[in-house]
Amino acid sequence: MKISALKVLPLFFFISVSLLFMPAAHAIGTGGDLPRPKKLPPEIEDVIYEKNSLYQFIKITESKRRGERYIQNTNRMLKQGGVYINEPDKLLFEYTRLSFIGLAFLEQEPKDALFIGMGAGVMPRYFHKYYPDTNIDSVEIDPDVYDVAKKYFFYKDEKTMKVYIKDGRVFMKKSKKKYDIIFLDAYQGGHIPFHLTTREFFQVVKKRLKPGGVIVANILAEDRNRFYYSMMKTYKKEFPHLYMFEGFASDNYIFVTRVEDTKIDKFTVWQNASKLQDEKKFDIYLPEMSNAYSYYSEDDNKAEILTDDFAPVNLYKHMSAD
Amino acid sequence: MIYFIVFICGAIVMSYEILGSRVLAPNFGSSVFVWGSLISVFLAGLSAGYYFGGKVADIRASTRKLALIVLIPGIMFVSFPLYGYVISDWVFDMELGIRMSPLVASMILFFIPSVFLGMVSPYTVKLMMCSLHTSGATVGSLYALSTMGSIVGTLLTSFYLITIAGVQKLIMAQGIILIALTIPLFLMNASCAVENKKEQ
Question: Parallel, antiparallel, or unpaired: how do β-strands A179-184 and A46-52 relate?
């Protein structure tokens, strides 16, 4: 009854190695974790700052010719945020501009706003410029991102603008404050951390929302992947209506939802946006954004609803819809 | 059979660790503190397991007793949905701070199973070590198998299993595998002492 150890070993080795390559080959075949790097842009971007933080590799680059400065995490081509160096109050990225369409869904004047995931801090800063009296809380997990926002992206703490270094979900679960508008824009590399994509998370978010409040989420979905469909279904499960604004020049979608049951049509959004535009004189043109309006009506895609128990976010990003 | 068990237990330890991060995330986020506590709790469990497993193995080691060692985490895994999120919520409500909360939650949820899974290694060494001439090779191949299992468990879980089933189902499935393993162990009823006698 004695089996020699050495005889069995190669067999197990073979099994392990073949098992290893099955999923690995799958992952590589579908693009791994990073989008395929496109060709380097012709102009040279100078790296002005690099740091390995607790959560990521932060890199700040600058293009002198374009007068733009970017933040990117992990060494890839995906830029997470940026500014025009000479006009730091302008919104450089399409999704940051598009996000403000969320204001057209808001019935009341926003007194309290929340940003989950601050990045370069461009959006809270822009919001503050047009709503100086609104209390703006930003939640950022990575202390180095906050430092960088201050040093390179013109962010300043103000009386009405505060930053909390915390996990977004933990912050909201502990917080008792309610907000008129909540921006969800927390990313880790190219994907949203899974615990910020689930039904249970949205239940937490709902509790932090005032009546009539609005949730605005930035969803990065290259080629409408499976994650995109799962995200729509999950939102639809927790909220009565889901409005989507597709980026024209980017792979970003802005999802807008409310707890209230009344549907807001495209015309109303346009009307509200026009009114806001006259009132606030944004340097972006809000009514134009309403063109990207689309309403999610349930279709029979096979995507799953994401829950705390089941949320393969980063894997779904590389799967097609069916 | 023993080799197989070592392999599977190695795979399940790491797979459970990966799933553990998913269990903790809803309450404690995915900060470095969560990963730090998770990894150190598993290592603490394993090292305690190695120590006590070795001690227990010296008291008339048999496959039936090994079956018992494997059975306990098996039962804990199968019943995980009953207490997993309850404990996690309970620790969250205690508000121990961003470092202590995930550490305490990991301690309660993951320490005991990893102790028992850690015990498997020295115990199987004892069972397999029937001749002192090849003891080096025996121990070496058991270590190698256990670690290979861990690699497979880690990759399979994080690359693949997470897309096909929920975290709770996966943990329960691991429990079922462990419980299933105890059956042949129990029926074999082999021990080194017995084999030594036969050889004489």
Answer: unpaired
Q: How much is the pTM?
A: 0.80
| Smallest Cα distance from A264 to chain B, Å | 32
Question: Reduced to 3 states, what is the DSSP secondary structure of residue B193?
Answer: helix
| Subunit contact A5:B138, Cβ cutoff 8 A | yes
Strand pairing of A46-52 and A57-63? antiparallel
At residue B119, φ and ψ (nearest 5 deg) are: -60, -30
Give the span between the Cα atoms of A303 and A31, in whole angstroms: 20
Task: Tell me the HSE value of A86 on the side-chain side, using a 13 A CA sphere.
Answer: 5
Interface membership of B100 toward A (CB under 8 Å)? no
pLDDT surpassing 80 at residue A26:
no
CA distance B175 to chain A (A): 17
Are A58 and A141 in the same domain? Answer: no
Residues 6+ apart with CB under 8 A from A144: A51, A53, A54, A58
Pair type for strands A112-116 and A209-220: unpaired
Identify whether residues A67 and A175 lie together within a single domain: no
Of the three residues A84, A113, A137, the one that is the final residue of a domain is A84
Share of chain A above pLDDT 70, in %: 83
A57 located within any domain: yes
Q: Which domain holds residue A79?
A: 46-84
Establish whether this prediction's ipTM goes over 0.85: no
**pLDDT tens profile A96-110:** 999 999 999 998 999
Residues in contact with A298: Cβ distance below 8 Å, sequence separation at least 6, in sequence order: A236
Q: Can you list the domains of chain B with their CATH numbers?
A: 2-199 (1.20.1250.20)
Residue of B nearest to A317 (CA): B163
